């Protein structure tokens, strides 16, 4: 009976975090990010809507391989303030820039909502499904942490991922990366359980998720790459068991991925190949400074940056982990997931578009969560743990009230930092093993970070977007 009550309480907290994640993503979702920052949001939905309405995907594309082109003023969400302003949108058919699944979800939702023309595909309608998808990602991140690091880590990771402003705002955008994230997390969960329980059903689940990921975008092949590395890590090389598992995995995943080729060949295989290779030959945005760029600057769109200390901290932890062998399966798999997507990111590009980096953030927050919770529960690197917490909290406060407005609180801030450092030094000096005081302090600081995350999000309106987000 007692165990059932504990499980019920844990499940309630799990649901509360999911509800919180949904709430912060839904508030002002149709206004911020401002519609039109990426035409892709409309293109995906137009392709799905037209496919359901007329049997052919029609949307906007800049790909040279498209032969059929129209020019139209589609004044959705006041994209054009007047019909005569700006250049018309290039409309192509059949649109096969990317696989159809995301368009079928967002465009299909618009169709079920009564939308029949492109002008009615407003952000208010088409962004609703992606909010659900990004909320599911929060749940999957918590499950992954729960499976590999325990319930406490799951709650901490869920709270951070649910409320980090950069993650929340990006989770409102109709980009295929937001659909690849839950597929990758689900794939990582399945592989974790397969390694622990040795049940082929979990490998089957990973294969299904990997196949589905590629139907959102070809970068979804990150799941295939991840499973390849995970199996190599499991079997320590190319032995018979490795080839058996890989063969089973590919026998399930590749036929699902091949559905995109079947879909494209409906309108002519040559036409499909022209578009595919034209897409491949687009401007390659990854330069020599790309690795520093993704660590230092967090892009939300092509031109908008929203720095996050939690993401930067995750990168630093990742860099520290890759130079030493990790015993924990969850940590190893997370590092392999990051390494897999880093390969995909460099191979496909494109640095100028923020959404290419979205999948990094979930995995970085998993590593950050593991680092923080290990520090509190095991007493590891407490100085570094509280330094990260203080930096995140201080950064949040400064961007909420501004540097100049922060000055009256400067002495209080200095006193708080000094107090924490003093207690940590005393602990190390006397080898004090009771971490209760640090657990309480951690929870207080985590609560303050979540509160300031939400407060900052509530303050982002149209004026703030243009004036303060560079």
Automatic annotation (TrEMBL):
Domain Glycosyltransferase RgtA/B/C/D-like, residue spans: 97-254
Entry keyword annotation includes Electron transport: no
Any one Pfam family match given in the protein's UniProt record, by short name: PMT_2
GO molecular function, one term: pentosyltransferase activity
Membrane topology: Multi-pass membrane protein
Intracellular or extracellular location(s): Cell membrane
GO biological process: lipopolysaccharide biosynthetic process
Keywords: Cell membrane, Glycosyltransferase, Membrane, Transferase, Transmembrane, Transmembrane helix
GO cellular component: a single term: plasma membrane
Transmembrane segments: 6-24, 125-144, 150-169, 176-195, 201-227, 248-269, 305-323, 330-348, 354-372, 384-404, 410-429, 436-454
Main subcellular location: membrane
Protein name from the UniProt record: Glycosyltransferase RgtA/B/C/D-like domain-containing protein
Organism in which the protein naturally occurs: Candidatus Shapirobacteria bacterium GW2011_GWE1_38_10
């Amino acid at each position: 009976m007692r165990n059932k009550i504990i499980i019920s309480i844990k499940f309630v907290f799990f649901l509360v975090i999911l509800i919180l994640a949904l709430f912060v993503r839904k508030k002002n979702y149709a206004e911020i990010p401002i519609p039109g920052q990426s035409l892709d949001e409309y293109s995906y939905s137009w392709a799905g809507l037209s496919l359901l309405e007329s049997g052919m995907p029609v949307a906007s594309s800049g790909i040279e391989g498209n032969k059929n082109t129209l020019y139209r003023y589609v004044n959705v969400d006041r994209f054009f303030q007047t019909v005569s302003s700006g250049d018309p949108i290039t409309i192509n058919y059949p649109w096969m820039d990317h696989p159809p699944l995301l368009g079928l979800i967002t465009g299909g939702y618009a169709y079920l909502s009564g939308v029949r023309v492109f002008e009615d595909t407003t952000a208010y309608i088409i962004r609703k499904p992606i909010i659900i998808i990004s909320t599911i990602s929060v749940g999957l991140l918590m499950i992954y942490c729960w499976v590999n690091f325990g319930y406490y880590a799951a709650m901490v990771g869920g709270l951070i991922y649910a409320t980090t402003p950069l993650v929340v705002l990006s989770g409102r955008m109709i980009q295929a990366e937001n659909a690849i994230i839950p597929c990758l997390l689900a794939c990582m969960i399945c592989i974790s359980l397969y390694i622990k329980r040795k049940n082929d059903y979990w490998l089957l689940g990973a294969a299904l998720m990997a196949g589905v990921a590629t139907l959102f975008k070809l970068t979804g092949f990150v799941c295939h790459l991840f499973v390849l590395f995970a199996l190599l890590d499991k079997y320590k090389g190319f032995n018979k068991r490795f080839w058996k598992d890989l063969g089973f995995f590919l026998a399930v995943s590749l036929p699902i991925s091949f559905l995109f080729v079947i879909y494209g060949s409906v309108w002519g295989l040559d036409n499909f190949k022209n578009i595919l290779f034209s897409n491949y030959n687009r401007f390659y945005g990854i330069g020599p400074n790309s690795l520093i760029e993704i660590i230092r600057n967090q892009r939300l769109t092509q031109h908008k940056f929203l720095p996050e200390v939690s993401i930067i901290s995750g990168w630093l932890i990742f860099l520290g982990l890759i130079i030493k062998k990790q015993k924990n399966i969850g940590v190893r798999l997370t590092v392999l997931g990051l390494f897999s997507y880093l390969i995909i990111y460099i191979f496909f590009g494109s640095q100028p578009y923020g959404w290419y980096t979205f999948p990094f953030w979930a995995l970085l927050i998993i590593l950050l969560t593991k680092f923080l919770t290990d520090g509190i529960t095991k007493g590891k690197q407490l100085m570094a743990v509280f330094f990260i917490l203080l930096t995140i909290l201080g950064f949040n406060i400064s961007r909420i009230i501004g540097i100049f407005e922060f000055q009256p609180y400067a002495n209080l801030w200095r006193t708080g930092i000094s107090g924490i450092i003093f207690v940590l030094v005393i602990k190390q000096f006397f080898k004090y093993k009771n971490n209760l005081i640090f657990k309480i302090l951690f929870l207080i600081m985590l609560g303050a970070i979540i509160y300031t995350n939400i407060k900052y999000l509530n303050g982002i309106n149209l004026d703030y977007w243009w004036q303060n987000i560079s």
